[in-house]
Amino acid sequence: MTTQAYQEYQQIIDSNASKQAERGIQRIRISISESNESASADSISQRNMELFSAYENKKIEQVIDVSDRTKLLIDAVIDVDGIHCVSQYEYLTRDITEEIRAKLFRAVFLDAADQAEYDELNDVWTLDIDPDIRNYFLYQVSHSNGGTTVSGEQIMILGNRYYDLYPFEDNRLSAISDGKVDVSADGAVDICKRIVSAIADADDYIADYVQVYGNHGRRPYYKIVFQYMLDGMPVSAYNDLTFLYDNNGIEMVKGSLFSYSFAG
After folding, report:
1. Which run of H or of E encompasses 125?
2. Phi/psi at 82 (nearest 5 deg)?
3. What is the pTM of this model?
4. Burial environment of residue 113 by CB neighbours within 10 A (0 to 12, 13 to 18, 19 or more)
5. Residue 232 region, left (φ>0) first, then alpha (ψ -120 to 50), else beta?
6. What is the SS3 assignment for 239?
7. Per-residue confidence of the chain (264 residues) as pLDDT tens digits?
């Protein structure tokens, strides 16, 4: 990748470019790993040699529109020197169980989690914060009906139904330092990572990016997105673990959980 392309890419990441744009980038996962015992070492080695031969010195040129004024320029020649294996994995969905729901509530609400009520008719959970003004949290498990997703993938959604945090572009601030949330971005990430630890293995997740909202006097908050790490690279899930965090704490947790298997 040229110096210019790398600098523009780094600027995009540092400015917390939108997730939708990041997902437009075609990624080639190349990693050094040990051969799986269930796979044939000879077949993996042969496949690797074929891939190395196919991609060695191949040039990639692409321009990706990231925003109205920003473009990602890719001008790179693939170098496979020092790479010993190309690993392939299968993305496996996980069910959002009642056990996961209970751990999530305990991590977010602490002792107040016991006050949550289950609505069997609508298959949702609610927890009142201030019933006089209908300030409450609603929890449900949903399936994605729009965009690219995995058949049968379950999405947990826990959100405060009272505040309108307005998650649109005209409400997003250009720099984290412009935010008005009392807790620092790093502090909010640490708190959200504790939630990730309760429902998944936090050591395998990183806070991929943080965006700050609260333009024109609207309620300030952070949007924090976690991604799973595999072979030192973040895995873009179809529904990444996403948190909205304001001066009252966590106001929304949304996303899916998944696992993977080695496919050769």
Report:
1. strand 124-130
2. 85, -5
3. 0.72
4. middle
5. left
6. coil
7. 444 444 444 444 444 434 433 333 333 333 333 434 444 556 767 777 777 777 788 888 888 876 667 788 888 888 878 777 777 888 888 899 999 999 999 999 999 999 999 999 999 999 999 999 999 999 999 987 655 567 778 999 999 999 989 989 999 999 999 999 999 999 999 999 999 999 987 788 999 999 999 998 899 999 999 999 888 888 877 789 999 999 999 999 999 998 888 876
Contact 207, 224 (CB under 8 A): yes
Residue pair 33/87 in contact (Cβ under 8 Å)? The answer is yes
AA letter at 17: A
The secondary structure of 28-76 as a DSSP string is ------PPPTTS-HHHHHHHHHHHHHHHTT-EEEEEEE-SSS-EEEEEE
Token reading at 33? 């790993």
Alpha helices in the chain (DSSP H): 3-14, 19-22, 41-55, 98-109, 185-199
| Residue type at position 149 | T
Q: Which residues contact 56 (CB under 8 A, 6 or more apart)?
A: 78, 79, 80
Whole-angstrom distance, CA of residue 197 vs CA of residue 194? 5
Quick one: tokens of 34? 């040990």
